[in-house]
Amino acid sequence: MSEKKADLTMEALASLCKRRGFIFQSSEIYGGINGFWDYGPLGVELKRNIKNAWWRAMVQDREDIVGLDSSIIMHPRVWEASGHASGFTDPMVDCKKCKGRWRADQLPETKCPQGGPHEFTEARMFNLMFETNVGPVKDASALAYLRPETAQGIFVQFGNILAIARQKVPFGIAQIGKAFRNEINPRNYTFRSREFEQMELEFFVKPGTDAQWHEYWVAERMKWYTTIGLPAEHLHQYVYKKEELAHYASACVDVMYDFPFGTQELEGIAARGDFDLRRHQEFSGKSMDYFDPETKEKFVPHVVEPSAGVDRIALALLCEAYREEWVPTEEVAGAQVLPAEPGKQPPQGFEARTVMRFAPSVAPVKVAVFPLLKNKPELVEKGRKVFDLLRKRWPAFWDATGAIGRRYRRQDEIGTPYGITIDFQTLEDDTVTLRDRDTMQQIRLKIGELAAKLEETL
């Protein structure tokens, strides 16, 4: 784990996320509700950028994967067939003294707040699915569940998509959507929540080719994370031992990231065999067979499943981007940016700044436009023209309030890669200053050259 990660605290990150509108606690004015989070104006854009990058890589840039958006509530028999209705449980214990509740395999190492060691109850099984009722009458026939994963929607629509998508095995079906798990103990900010968003691919393959396709998708997914700004040195693979695998799986690898609270899972890539399709074939009575037109074989396809969490990836990007720095002032212009030392003041000629160094592709706002003075109509008018020109192509921010340095700092804190200042020279020669977030260097460009320059990195 890097030194930067060790210095970052989740309290500091959560404070910035609330202050700048990335993430709020759900129902905060009523005291909040544990395990649920709302994404503010910047958080929404960050998550949208993650999902767009995933969809582009998995669907738009490929010819062998199609998309689906299945419903959150499905027939209860879906969850009987998948095994969730009977087997999707965790062992739960309570402390008799402090009334705390934990999973039996994740007991606290701390002492009981009431003094001495915790006094745990016997473990009892707890179903993680949220129950609801469909229709006006609340009885056993109306029982339904909020889906705990998006994958089953893909499996139950396999036959319909196979019939219309003009795809041959191997091919995939991709989906992004909400899932719900009634976690016993949500923790680590947004990492483990009760409502979350998944990006899942079910890639259907010929039996006997599972290993090669699993290896392929592990490599593809590891590469993708580096394209959105998570460096390879903070990513790891956890390869499941044989005894750790689900009974139907032949292989599973987790993509892990170095969070401040430890190295944890972002995505699981599993070779699930034909378990899901066969179970739905058995429970529904509908064939899940595929006929290979080349070999004339009929078989139930096997599946390789890369399953990633949008919220966990967003949290990883926030952790990776967060920096506290000492940056040179004009008196030491050109000096190197220094990492801030906790609890100390910047040295002579430096000042502190917090900056989110997002990769430009996932930054919520791409460019900010500043008229040097808000009380000069000619600067404001020219600035609005530049702003209107750019916001048609990229998420842009208009800020005309406060000293220009303070405006730069506000944009640094939300991770905006570029700032454009409209000054008096702009009125003379139609040039503006373009400021880079990371280097803080400024160059002058013609307004007509801005779009091409920004396109290089955005």
Please give a handful of descriptors for the protein shown:
alpha+beta; Rossmann fold; 31% helix; globular; five-stranded mixed sheet; 28% strand; 458 residues; 24 strands; BirA Bifunctional Protein, domain 2
Account of the 3D structure:
The chain is an alpha+beta fold and 458 residues long. The chain has 2 domains: 3-75 and 148-319, BirA Bifunctional Protein, domain 2; 365-457, Rossmann fold (3-Layer(aba) Sandwich), CATH 3.40.50.800. The protein is built from 14 helices and 24 strands. It has helices spanning 3-7, 10-20, 41-60, 76-82, 84-87, 151-156, 158-164, 210-227, 275-284, 310-321, 377-391, 404-414, 424-429, 450-457; strands at 23-25, 37-39, 65-67, 89-94, 101-103, 124-127, 131-133, 143-145, 171-180, 195-205, 235-239, 251-259, 262-273, 290-291, 298-299, 302-309, 322-328, 338-339, 350-356, 367-371, 396-398, 418-422, 431-436, 442-446. The strands form 7 sheets. A 7-stranded mixed β-sheet has the order 3-9-10-16-13-12-11. The protein has a 5-stranded mixed β-sheet with strand order 21-20-22-23-24, sandwiched between helices. A 3-stranded antiparallel β-sheet has the order 5-4-6. The longest helix has 20 residues, at 41-60. The radius of gyration is 26 Å and the shape is globular. 31% of the residues are buried. The model is unreliable at 1-6 (pLDDT under 50).
Strand order of the largest sheet: 3-9-10-16-13-12-11
Q: How many helical stretches?
A: 14
What class would the helix/strand composition place it in? Answer: alpha+beta
CATH superfamily of the largest domain: Bira Bifunctional Protein, Domain 2
Round the Cα radius of gyration to an integer and report it: 26 Å
Distance between the termini: 29 Å
Query: What is the level-2 CATH architecture name of the largest domain?
Result: 2-Layer Sandwich
Domains (count): 2
According to DSSP, the number of beta strands is 24
| Residues in helices, as a percent range | 25-40%
